[in-house]
Amino acid sequence: MSDSIFIGQAGELAISLLPKLANRHGLIAGATGTGKTITMQGLAEGFSEIGVPVFLADIKGDVSGVTQPGKEHPKVAERVALMHLDDFKFQGFPATFWDVFGKQGHPVRTTISDMGPLLMSRLLNLNDTQEGVLSLVFRVADDNGWLLLDLKDLRAMLKFVADNAAEFRTIYGNVSAASVGAIQRRLITIEDQGGDQLFAEPVLNLDDLMQTDAEGKGVINMLAANTLMNSPQLYSTFLLWLMAELFEQLPEVGDPDKPKLVLFFDEAHLIFKDAPQVLLDKVEQVVRLIRSKGVGVYFVTQNPTDIPDSVLAQLGNRIQHALRAYTARDQKAVRAAAQTFRDNPDLDTETVITELGVGEALVSLLDEKGRPQIVQRTLIKPPKSQIGPITDSQRTVLMSNSLVAGVYEKMVDRESAYEILTQRAEELAKKQQADEVVVAQAKEQAKAAQPKAAGRQRETPMEAFFKSAMRSIGTQIGGKLVRGILGSLLGGK
């Protein structure tokens, strides 16, 4: 097929990926420094050349070089000559940069509601009880028609549910104050990691990821992940959300001649690390069914064992770079990786995995009937674009000329749960204040209506004279008695 994506050379045999089978997903694995990133860059170029948009996570920033033509290099020239690539020429490819934090690319955002309780629980690392409370909060918001857009909306809803726990208990079940407090604390952690920048509007329009340029080349969308990787939970949850959104929004297309979009998830082990079974089941379902939406998913990781078996079974196209077997555990991993390939009688797969050099890989792709081909030791083609990162000034120019320049830069904060609950609280406070004023006025009126106690009558001059005389006589008698008593005590005469 003329539009096949050339991967590399196995002796005289050209190893190519068939576009109509590219949506059967794939795996790129290998130890650090064995060439996984270069292979991913070369595949992205291949998809772009046949008009397929690509989304990939740029972990170290070095894939950004795909936007610039490559430069002459002895090793590249040697590889090109060895593979007889007569039509090989250096070129750059169209790209759009994205960044959750909005620094190295256009801001990419979603909302709390779009994320849903399952992924939010994953992001916040909640236990079953806390996840139940969070699901309750989402349900209450849905029942009242209140939007959950950003973190302050979720905080307001948590407080509202906690304050009215007795009311919701009979409808939704118990609301644990301890669980609400734990979720609130987790939200602070996520906010400190920059999660508040992810949850906002405008939300990423998935159509903006599926663009081609004037020449018909697919745009390579790169997510700047060098900073995002400092928050692995945030990184993995975002990728899961993206895959889930594509699955829910894209129409069924069956098996197209080529994919509508291809995703490359680098450091894929983070997606599955410590994930609850319910989430793993969801990922397996999405990976299995998203193929019919015309989307191919390629996981990039160090070892195939990083991927759950249920997901690994869905990955038909496999590129395995070298693995190291320094320990018994490493040897077991090598053996497991070798067993995932269709055997080649001329190749000792288990031994070769540990002997592969940089830029070499064991490759097994699907044939025209969807069957895995026998594994081949393959020299991977060099990329046509620049190997290594671009400069900050180059990135700035590319962002300013991007198809989505100025679309996502300004954050929008429309009325949602926070604003509604704040307004309700203000109205309630005003009503309580008014009620207190009414009660106080009623008390004043009641007090004023009571009859006043009779005042003390003024003494007449005669009464005052007699009272004064009696006080004087009493004083004189009392003085004498005191003196008499003291005198007897002291022996006075």
Summarize the structure.
By secondary structure, the chain is α/β, with parallel strands linked by helices. It folds into 2 domains: 5-109 and 204-390, Rossmann fold; 112-196. It has helices at 36-49, 74-83, 112-124, 128-144, 151-163, 165-172, 177-192, 195-198, 232-249, 269-272, 277-289, 309-312, 328-339, 349-355, 392-400, 417-449, 461-490, and strands at residues 5-10, 13-17, 26-29, 54-58, 95-99, 106-107, 220-224, 261-266, 295-301, 317-320, 360-364, 376-380.
**CATH fold type of the largest domain:** Rossmann fold
Structural class: alpha/beta
Task: Name the CATH superfamily classification of the largest domain.
Answer: P-loop containing nucleotide triphosphate hydrolases
Give the fraction of residues assigned to helices: 40-55%
Counted by DSSP, the helix tally is 17
Topology, number of strands: 12
Distance linking N and C termini: 146 Å
pLDDT averaged residue by residue:
88
The side-by-side strand order for the widest beta sheet comes to 2-1-12-11-10-3-9-8-4-7-5-6
Task: Determine the strand fraction and express it as a percent band.
Answer: 5-15%
Q: Just name the CATH architecture of the largest domain.
A: 3-Layer(aba) Sandwich
List the quaternary state of the chains.
single chain
Specify the biggest β-sheet.
12 strands, mixed
The ordered string of helix (H) and strand (E) elements is: EEEHEHEEHHHHHHEHEHHEHEHHEEHHH
Low-confidence blocks of residues:
477-493
Radius of gyration: 38 Å
Number of domains: 2
Choose one word for the global shape: elongated
Determine and state the CATH class of the largest domain. Answer: Alpha Beta
